[in-house]
Amino acid sequence: MPTTETEIAAMDDVLRTDYQKSVAEYWNTEKDPVNLRLGDVDGLYHHHYGIGDFDPSVLEGPADTRDQRVIEELHRLETAQADVLLDHLGAISPAHRLMDAGSGRGGTSIMANARFGCHVDGVTISEAQVGFANDQAARRGVADHVRFHFRNMLDTGFGTGSRRGIWTNETTMYVDLFELYAEFSRLLEYGGRYVCVTGCSNDVTGMRSKAVSRIDEHYTCNIHPRSEYFKAMAANNLVPINVVDLTSATIPYWELRAKSSVATGIEEAFLTAYKEGSFHYLLIAADRI
Predict the structure, then answer these.
(1) Angle of the 210-219 helix axis to the 267-276 helix axis, nearest 10
(2) Alpha helical stretches, state H, 18-146
(3) Is the dihedral of CA 168, 54, 87, 38 positive or negative?
(4) What 3-state DSSP class applies to 119?
(5) Distance between CA 110 and CA 45 in Å, rounded?
(6) Three-state DSSP class for 212?
(7) pLDDT tens-digit profile of 106-155?
(8) What are the pLDDT digits (tens) for 39-60?
(9) 67 pLDDT more than 80
(10) Residue 142 — φ and ψ, nearest 5°?
(11) How many C-beta atoms surround the C-beta of residue 136 within 10 A?
(12) Whole-number Cα distances in Å, 132 to 28, 137, 245
């Protein structure tokens, strides 16, 4: 934590509201096994959910190794989700710069560099995550191309038009979308691509769903209705080119996680919300015009 006046001033520049400070404190102290144990499988640490059918054989076989098989399968599904997100960034060359907004412990940024060979900057309001992620980049020998910064994604300080691509992976529920997309529109070059993966409520039924309210409460976030994403994009020169409903694809992940040793108790709320149709898991890819 900051100890000097300069460090405290720098923190106040990044964390501008009490809510942002509370979110940062949560992630600075978070050591949830559902994030750490899965990342321990291969050193790619994610902070998002998974997609795709799971292999039912992981629930069979010797009991003493069952838990590790489930952990490895959950990690495979969350890495598959990151691959789908990267698939939608379009044509990226090694000369391009990307930004991971709400970069967590850095897994997707490291994957992006491995795939495209480009520079990636991750930003997060958690100083603990910045240190962890930069250490992972150094361990992999990519710190010259992948860097993580203690910055607010609503006001990053990066140059106007400096990014070919930006993504958010389950981080938009902590911020105002109009303010966020104004910053992304500034950062993206003309024709650049923004990709969002997020949970969002059904405009018709989601706000009345007890399951959606439970998810909000669990993560101290503010889940946006689906329509809000498209309104905020339209207001900030971001035009969707692909919208993919991943809801059915993520349900197997939650069903397997509910059977795992890293279940947190929120699994039932997600499964209920997805299956009743009050909550959606969307990928939105949009071009900056």
Answers:
(1) 140
(2) 18-29, 33-39, 63-87, 107-116, 127-139
(3) positive
(4) strand
(5) 10
(6) helix
(7) 999 999 999 999 999 999 999 999 999 999 999 999 999 999 999 999 99
(8) 999 999 999 999 999 999 999 9
(9) yes
(10) -120, 15
(11) 22
(12) 10, 9, 32
Residues 190-209 have pLDDT tens digits of: 999 999 999 999 998 756 79
Contact between residue 225 and residue 173 where contact means Cβ atoms under 8 Å apart: no
CA 112 – CA 135 distance, rounded (Å) = 17
The DSSP 8-state label assigned to residue 174 in this structure reads G
Q: Does 177 score more than 70 pLDDT? A: yes
Return the amino acid letter for 168: T
Closest among 14, 40, 10, 41 to 27, alpha carbons compared: 14
Question: Side chain identity at 132, as an amino acid letter?
Answer: F
Q: Which two tokens stand for residue 7?
A: 């460090």
Torsion sign (Cα): 28, 163, 142, 114? positive
Taking the mean position of all CA atoms in its chain, how far away is CA 194? 13
| Non-local CB neighbours of 191 within 8 Å, separated by 6+ positions | 287, 288, 289
Instruction: Give CA–CA dist 61/55, Å, rounded.
Output: 13
